[in-house]
């Protein structure tokens, strides 16, 4: 099928053409991008007043399959992804069984081929069973299709294991995605340690717990020359250390999530477990530092850390509820509302953080609109105002911290490999 | 006229007027104590449940006496940790109580926020009888009542709270109540037991007990949880007692009318010496009595009482 998307604002920082214009796609590929393109026999899609972007890429989400298909499956998770404008997602290894060998990587990929709505790039575990002791078979997983390695959900507490992992992963040129929280300092904490943890009487997790691990791991990254990516940065010092390490030329990167750069620990005032997440929502100064880090380029990536949980599990005592929130369907609109309309990022910078940079870091053939590229692209209506409602969520889980929140901009149309997957307000089966 | 919210979850949610209303109502309730027949029909036909996930004979008994003297039907539920382990969730328990048509639930729990979860799940009124390190509002109120009874006022007093501020729900309820009624509060503890952000509560932080006691009108001494020592908050009980224990020599250096309080049960010889605990400046025993009066007032006010004269008839 041939399509011509006419008159939209093409935001394409990694491609050759940006600006108001047309985009022609055919047989799964972008054929031409530019002004006044010949329409011929193409289906015309009017996009005046809309934005045309390369498909978004989430380099950090949890799809829960295999193991917790009641919370999410590859099918439901990638539907949620598409609805949010993500044409590709990288999913973490903390499934059951853990994705610590080629078999699970292949299982995820085959499920994705059968019923994935977006492209799925599995992330392999760094250590067997996420136990932090022995290295998982990274070579076999890389060969099977793992794009990165991560023990996310757990911190690699043993520095010798991290050192080996970084040295060994260099063989396959895959980054390690690190979840940073010193467990002894975090102790039994369930939220950010500060004024609000004292008000609520809940044990706190100091920002220090994240900072000491980032400091340690930057030293190990420097020593080994390995590629380190910090997941869900949440602290001001963490951002500062990352900036400093980049100045010194280290091969390091970092991501921030929409919930961390939008919400603060005050959101926990009524003990609502929808806001319980790891790392925790922190105070205003940390939120501000994340925004600054995104603005000055220290933080190159916005990732969702989409973590579905059932309502029964979340509807309980705050300290006993699981950590995590979903995010695929709200990420773009939250980032647009908070960062672009808030004056922190330009449209181009937003596209870099949600598409160009994750593609680069994971070595994916995506992130731009260029003739010859696979047509992963989305149309966004920047004026569409909407309120997040649980009944409209495509994910199997509804644990969104943004329910009830009014957002600006919405993903309208989504193509994956040139195939229309989402059109207006419905999925194209 | 001040009116209370549906539930009493903490003193943070109340304003000065509401707190005064509770204290004034408690005064009327205390009159009942002097009667031969300590019973009024105020809560006849009302079902009150005490739901304790954490043992506390003292607080529970106080609520029980308050309920009995007001003729409520009382049900005690002790939820053992084993039934929680069996998978009966907190929310299930709340639903069961809701189905029974209970009027008021008094809850004690080791995790902060559970009274709020309960209150949001049931139509019944909920009283927080202590939740984790969050709040213990009825203790806070009885402390306020005891201070007001002895000193005749709260506003303008210098109140020192000494001990494990980090884990103390009593400290926080006290801080909210005292500062709302115009007292000046100083918290004293080793730095390891001073929680982050406590300065933003409008209190002065001090680590020198002698200095803090110099101008104090009241000292409220918190119980040290002996098992916390293993967490390395302070080296030994002996050293704690030396630096932060209220003993006779410290009492002698303070103002002669310094009021000594302790929510109990006290570790004698640790945070408070035996001599101080029985000293005539100590109101520890009266605190227990006042606890019943304050809890009667709360049961009455929350279940719809408006005019305090009704209590007496
Ligand atoms: Zn993580
Ligand atoms: Zn994660």
Structure, explained:
The complex is a heterodimer of chains A (429) and B (313). With 429 residues, chain A is of the alpha/beta class. Helices cover 30% and strands 23% of the residues of chain A. The longest helix of chain A has 18 residues, at 207-224. Chain B has 313 residues and is an alpha/beta fold. In chain B, the strands form two sheets. Chain B has a five-stranded parallel beta sheet. In chain B, strands 2-1-3-4 form a four-stranded parallel beta sheet, with helices on both faces. In chain B, α2 links the parallel β1 and β2. Chain B is globular, with a radius of gyration of 19 Å. Chain B starts with 15 loop residues before the first helix and ends in an 11-residue tail after the last helix. The interface between A and B is medium-sized, with 21 and 24 residues. The structure holds zinc ion (ZN) (2 copies).
SSE inventory with pairings:
The complex is a heterodimer of chains A (429) and B (313).
Chain A: E1 2-10, E2 19-26, E3 29-34, E4 43-46, E5 51-54, E6 56-61, H1 74-83, E7 86-91, H2 102-115, E8 119-124, H3 138-144, E9 148-150, H4 159-169, E10 176-178, H5 183-186, E11 191-192, H6 195-200, E12 204-205, H7 207-224, E13 228-230, H8 236-247, E14 252-256, H9 258-262, H10 284-295, E15 301-302, H11 311-314, H12 331-340, H13 347-362, E16 377-387, E17 406-416, E18 419-423, E19 426-427
Parallel strand pairs in A: 1-4, 1-5, 6-7, 7-8, 8-9, 9-10, 10-13, 11-12, 13-14, 14-15
Antiparallel strand pairs in A: 1-2, 2-3, 5-16, 16-17, 17-18, 18-19
Helix pairs in contact in A: 2-3, 4-7, 7-8, 8-10
Chain B: H1 16-33, E1 47-52, H2 57-69, E2 73-78, H3 81-85, H4 90-99, E3 104-109, H5 114-121, E4 125-131, H6 137-151, E5 158-162, H7 169-180, E6 184-188, E7 204-206, H8 209-213, E8 218-221, H9 237-244, H10 248-253, E9 259-261, H11 274-277, H12 284-302
Parallel strand pairs in B: 1-2, 1-3, 3-4, 5-6, 5-8, 6-7, 8-9
Helix pairs in contact in B: 1-6, 1-12, 2-12, 6-7, 6-12
Bound molecules: zinc ion (ZN) (2 copies).
